[in-house]
User: Which sequence fits this backbone?
């Protein structure tokens, strides 16, 4: 039985990847940060679904503690490591740049060092980001497009990308970068714009709130479904040779289009409810990201399954269920 170690297992991508790997027959280990309360909501269903010997196990650790990471890798001796842990909110990275870099950049380096010093050959996946392209010099962006990051988060991810490449070339390690463009789902964090939109729209529909405040409606992103994208991560580590791949849909849509799609699905006019709040503008904006995943399609045999319209509806349906339950509780005075 193969063992996989996932950082960021309680996040959106980590939970979908854990789902995917367990279905492949893996034993999955996840690193979680020590906290006074558990934040395992996205993976709780996996424990409920495992009736035999549990193949999902959690261990305390942190990307800011290199000795701890080495101890975990040496104890578990995984076949594959997926580094998905990060401070992943771009806007927040401007408010917390040092923490973001310590976790997202140096955290990757610490984990690469743990892999390098391990006496077992380990395949390593690094979660790179389309935010590395930032002020993109060409559209669409490919594996050969120069990076031009426009946030502390983007800069940290560029550092991690090149450290991963360097460790592959210097130490002959099987390490890969997945340059994932925006990918969303009902498990997306509530402060990310797509989830913020679907939550607000459904709550407005249910009479639980009256307005949705957003920043730049003209920013365009290549939005896919997180459940599709974790398959690409796994496929990268099943190849004969390590390499780097763009994972994207090849389409771009503005925040305005996503808002319009969600509100139209709920039979509402979005312009009656959405207002612009300057607090949500970034100090330096990324205007257009659109990926070309031709290499992933050709080499990995991967392609996205969920369309933009389907993604918006999947997220809206899930949040409508939450809003309806909230309304019932409110109506009963709870």
Assistant:
């Amino acid at each position: 039985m193969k063992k996989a170690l996932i950082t960021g297992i309680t996040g959106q991508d980590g939970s979908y990847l854990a789902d995917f790997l367990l279905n492949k027959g893996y034993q999955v280990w996840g690193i979680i940060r020590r906290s006074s309360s558990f934040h395992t909501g996205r993976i709780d269903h996996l424990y409920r679904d495992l009736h035999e010997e549990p193949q999902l196990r959690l261990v305390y650790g942190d990307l800011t503690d290199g000795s701890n990471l080495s101890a975990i890798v040496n104890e578990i001796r995984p076949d594959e490591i997926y580094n998905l842990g990060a401070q992943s909110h771009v806007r927040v990275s401007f408010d917390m740049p040092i923490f973001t870099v310590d976790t997202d950049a140096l955290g990757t380096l610490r984990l690469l060092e743990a892999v390098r010093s391990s006496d077992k050959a380990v395949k390593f996946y690094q979660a790179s980001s389309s935010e590395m392209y930032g002020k993109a010099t060409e559209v669409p962006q490919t594996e050969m497009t120069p990076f031009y990051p426009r946030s502390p988060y983007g800069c940290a991810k560029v550092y991690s990308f090149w450290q991963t490449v360097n460790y592959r070339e210097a130490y002959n390690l099987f390490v890969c970068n997945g340059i994932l463009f925006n990918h969303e789902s009902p498990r997306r964090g509530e402060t990310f714009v797509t989830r913020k939109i679907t939550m607000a729209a459904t709550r407005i529909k249910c009479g639980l709130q009256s307005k949705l405040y957003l920043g730049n409606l003209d920013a365009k992103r290549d939005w896919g479904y997180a459940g599709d994208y974790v398959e690409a991560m796994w496929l990268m580590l099943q190849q004969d040779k390590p390499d780097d791949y763009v994972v994207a849909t090849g389409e771009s849509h503005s925040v305005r289009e996503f808002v319009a799609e969600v509100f139209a699905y709920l039979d509402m006019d979005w312009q009656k409810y959405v207002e612009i709040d300057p607090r949500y503008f970034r100090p330096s904006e990324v205007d257009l990201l659109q990926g070309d995943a031709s290499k992933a399609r050709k080499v990995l045999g991967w392609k996205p399954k969920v369309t933009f319209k389907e993604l918006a509806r999947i997220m809206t349906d899930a949040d409508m269920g939450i809003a309806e339950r909230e309304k019932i509780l409110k109506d009963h005075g709870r």
Remarks:
- Residues 308-331 form the longest helix (24 residues).
- The mean pLDDT is 94.
- The longest strand covers residues 123-129.
